[in-house]
């Protein structure tokens, strides 16, 4: 992917505890047209990033993941299709605030992230207070965050965390396709989602916003 013009792969030293040169400048130095910026965090093969970019040419989409072998497929498809409103960033989500300025991001998708079910790894869930507070510092007021997952524990944890912080979900369902709520956008399916559905597993979905002025605090059981 080093030859792909729409892929950014910064080395560790460029983003560890420092800002990347594109921070606050994605719509002026990376994308050819300044449009609302949408992130897919943990994008895997990039199916959602590319699928959404096709449906919404009036928005810019950036898929973020650390695993380049997976990301390569979506990056290649976007390049071959000549899409100018889609790009990819290879980095760890832990470094996400090194890349985006306050108010720079209009929307975030979390599509089938690792649920990190082992207790010693639960701090790595992409919906923990650590990550939600990072997103809170990047998004515009009223920005929407979507979570699609096959993991009921992750869905339940995130729902309880929102309620604990007095944030009412905009939409919550533990069976997206069975509920009839899956519209044209939500029915874009990733590689893993297709596999889960073939096994008869329900897909859980949460849609919510964060308050820029309100820090997210952990659930009592998760405090050390």
Give the arrangement of secondary structure elements.
Layout: E1 7-8, H1 12-15, H2 26-30, E2 37-41, H3 47-55, E3 60-65, H4 68-80, E4 86-90, E5 105-111, H5 129-136, E6 139-149, H6 152-164, E7 171-173, H7 191-198, E8 204-209
Parallel strand pairs: 1-4, 2-3, 2-5, 3-4, 5-6
Antiparallel strand pairs: 6-8, 7-8
Total strand count, please?
8
Q: Mean of residue pLDDT?
A: 92
Strand order of the largest sheet: 1-4-3-2-5-6-8-7
Largest sheet: 8 strands, mixed
What CATH architecture do you see?
3-Layer(aba) Sandwich
Structural class: alpha/beta
Shape: globular
Number of discrete helical segments: 7
Number of structural units classed as domains: 1
CATH class: Alpha Beta
CATH topology: Rossmann fold
Provide the low-confidence segments as ranges: none
**What's the helix-strand series?**
EHHEHEHEEHEHEHE
Share of helix, binned: 25-40%
Please give the alpha-carbon distance between the first and last residues.
41 Å
Radius of gyration: 17 Å
CATH superfamily: Vaccinia Virus protein VP39
Strand content: 15-25%
């Amino acid at each position: 992917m080093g030859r792909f013009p729409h892929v950014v792969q910064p080395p560790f030293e460029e983003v560890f505890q420092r800002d990347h040169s594109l921070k606050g400048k994605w719509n002026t130095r990376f994308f050819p047209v300044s449009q609302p910026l949408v992130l897919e965090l943990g994008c895997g093969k990039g199916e959602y990033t590319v699928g959404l970019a096709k449906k919404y040419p009036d928005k810019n989409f950036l898929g973020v993941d650390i695993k380049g072998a997976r990301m390569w497929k979506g990056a290649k498809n976007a390049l071959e299709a000549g899409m100018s409103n889609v790009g990819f960033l290879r980095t760890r989500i832990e470094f996400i605030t090194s890349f985006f300025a306050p108010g720079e991001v209009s929307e975030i998708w979390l599509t089938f992230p690792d649920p990190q079910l082992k207790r010693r790894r639960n701090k790595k869930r992409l919906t923990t207070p650590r990550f939600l507070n990072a997103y809170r510092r990047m998004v515009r007021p009223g920005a929407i965050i979507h979570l699609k997952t096959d993991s009921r524990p992750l869905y339940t944890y995130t729902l309880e965390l929102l309620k604990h912080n007095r944030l009412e979900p905009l939409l919550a369902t533990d069976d997206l396709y069975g509920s009839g709520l899956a519209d044209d956008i939500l029915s874009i399916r990733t590689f893993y989602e297709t596999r889960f559905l073939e096994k008869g597993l329900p897909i859980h979905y949460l849609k919510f916003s964060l308050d820029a002025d309100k820090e997210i605090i952990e659930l009592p059981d998760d405090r050390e």
